[in-house]
Structures are given as structure tokens and as C-alpha cells.
Amino acid sequence: MAQNTLILGLQWGDEGKGKIVDALAENSEVVCRFQGGHNAGHTIKVDGEEKVLHLVPSGILHPSIDCVLGNGLVLSLRALSEEILELEKSGINFKDRFYISNDCCLILPTHIQIDKVRDKSEGIGTTGKGVGPAYEDKVARRAIRFGDLKDLSFLKPKLKILVEYHNKILMHLYDSDPVPFKDVEEELVEHQKLYDKFHTPTQELLSEWVQDNKKIIFEGAQGSMLDIDHGTYPYVTSSSTTAGGLLTGLGIGPKYIDSILGITKAYTTRVGEGPFPTELFDENAKQLAKIGHEFGATTGRPRRCGWLDLKALEKIMFVNSVTSLCVTKLDVLDRFKEIKICIDYDENQDPIYKTFIGWKTQISNIKTFTDLPKEAQEYILFIETYLRCPVDIISVGPSRDQTIYKS
Ligand code: IMP
Known about the structure:
CATH topology of the largest domain: Adenylosuccinate Synthetase, Chain A, domain 1
Radius of gyration: 21 Å
Mean pLDDT: 95
Number of helices: 12
Helix content: 25-40%
Number of domains: 3
Shape: globular
Bound molecules: inosinic acid
Oligomer: single chain
Low-confidence stretches: none
Largest sheet: 10 strands, mixed
Structural class: alpha/beta
CATH superfamily of the largest domain: Adenylosuccinate Synthetase, subunit A, domain 1
CATH architecture of the largest domain: 3-Layer(aba) Sandwich
Distance between the termini: 11 Å
Strand order of the largest sheet: 9-7-5-2-10-1-11-15-18-19
């Protein structure tokens, strides 16, 4: 593994990044998140037990790894507290290895309320976690930041003005109930101890670690096609989910990124609204959803399913400057007689497919590329050739050991 690796989803999220970060974390010392919030849901299976992480980096499951939440995240104190408590119950230790940037903007209860009522009319199909409204406040320079928790009495007047503003939006634009100020204030008071335990100038820490040659993984959340600039706008999330987001979301320069691993499922899924050229509505869609357990880890919503879209991946690989690929959930295709890959679009923007013969064999116990059925090897080799990028990792099941390292 290279010194510092950025791991990114290349589709609309849920590519299985959590499992791969967890697997690669074994050979690294630090895992950092740099964007998004608790809209993310990373499911990881360790020793037969499933863990779902929303905010905490997937490296936390390895006891000696340092984990960072960078300035680019938006942070719900309640959600983070609950997640930490749940993980601590299962024996995971956060002391002296979990760091939160003072510059993270907070998601307040009013942001969550605005997100929920607004999405009813706007129909983006958000996760309802307040992520969009929190980033709006960040860009408008009125957000409350994690470092502000240092002195709640100093913060109170600013918070009051912000909550009043949010409540005007709720009452006058959306005809909805306001959120009492004391509820918002109480949430901050109740969770101020998170500040005491974890606040850190993370950018400085990172610069020390880079100088000490520590091996660092940067863990993307959501997928590149949900990027605020390069995704399927307006059906996107509100952060920079592509490689550029890492640089601003942690405060690290591009020369410290040694490799960029792009993760794609062997097919495609999407939660929420928005374009999806290779979406299927037939028996194949039902099979992909059923075999792939395609339900959102955060909201439980069923995911829309379709074939792999290499034309779309090609564009997003350039945006991210991906240096190697990981294909996940290849085993989900085990029972298909025929499998398709979109290689272009016609004049109506409908997909043009290349059809592959299915391998019709269970592959979830296979450990090496050359032991895969010839049809599965051909499928992977076609992806490599089309995208002009090596597929270094193939995931054939949810557990750490169900991972094939091709090179
Ligand atoms: P938001 O991030 O909650 O504002 O939602 C905006 C869009 O991004 C919606 O279509 C969500 O379904 C999608 N989205 C946000 N987070 C994730 C994720 O972690 N996986 C998949 N889709 C996501």
C-alpha cells in the first residue's frame, strides 16, 4: 500500500468503502474523514458481527489506529455521541486516538427540521440529517463551529440569532413548528464534553504525522456522483465528495496524496431521486436488490439498482485522478445468466450495453484472481481495459477475508 491513500466511492454512495477502509487500515496508522456528516452509513462485518458507522472513521475498529474528523465535515453532536456510546459498549476505545477539528461546523436540531420539511416540497430525497442546511450556514459564514463549544456563554448570543433565523424559515416558509431555543442550547450543553475530550487543531496534527511519515488513509463518504459540483446536480449532497474535497476538508496539499483508490460496485445503485441512466425496473433489478441487500444503511430506504455504467465512471475517474480501482460486491452477480455493462449512450442518452455471459458459480470463498471463473475474470479485465486503470482489489463478500488482492 502506498504511504497516503485516498479512498473514494465513484458512484452514488454505498459502494462498500467502509469494508475496504477497514481492511486496508490494518497496514496504516491514521484514518481521516474530510466531508459529509451522519448522512453516511458504512456497514462493516467483523467476526460475524455487523457494525454501522455514520461519522466515526472506519479505522476505529483497529485498536491502535488514530482517527480524525476534519474541518470539512458537518457534525451533529447528538449523532456522534450516540455512535461513540454504541461503539464503546462493544469494547472500542476512543481515548487518545480520536480527534475532531475545532473548525467543523455543527448540525443543529433546527438544521435537521429544515432539511425534513424542505425535502417534502423539493423532493431531492435527502437523508433528513440536516446536512444541506448546515453547509448553507457554513458558506454563509454564520455557522456554529465545534471550537465554539469552548465557551458556551460567549456562544449563546450568536446561537440565539441563528436559531431565530432558522425558526423564521420553518414558520414562514414552510408553515412548520419552530424548534424551542432551549432544545438547541440543551443539545450543545449536554454534549459539550465531546469538545473537552476530542477538540484538536487537526490540520497541525496532520502536518506532524505527514512529517513523521505515518501511513494515512483518507476516507471519502457518499459517492463522487453525489458531489456538489461534479455530481448529478441538484440531486446531490452538499459537500465535495470528489478528491478536491480532501484538500480543503482536512487542509492538506495534493503532493501528500500518494494514491487514489476508486471504489465501484460491480453494478450500480442509487438512493433518493435523480438521474440514473442504467437503472433497471425488471426482474434483474429485483434480484440485484435482494441478493445485494440493497437498503440504505442510514435510512433503510430501498436502493434503486441497475447495471454498471463505465461511461459515467470514466468521467468521474478523471475528476478524481483515480490511480487504482476496487470492484465490490462481485459475488452479487453470481446467479445472473447475462450481465450488462454500459459502454456509451445513444443520441437519446439511452445506454448502449455490452453483454457478458454470467459465471453461474458461487465466488464468495475465492481468494485469488486466477481462481475466479473465467467469465468473472473477463468482466473485471474489461473494466480495467475500458477505464485504463488496474483493478487491484475485488470484494466478494462482506467480511474482511472475502477480499481478493489482484496485485
Ligand atoms: P443529503 O446528503 O442527506 O442532503 O442527501 C442528498 C442526496 O444524497 C440524497 O439523494 C441522498 O440519498 C444521498 N446520500 C447522502 N448520503 C448518502 C450515502 O451515504 N449513501 C448514499 N446516498 C447518500
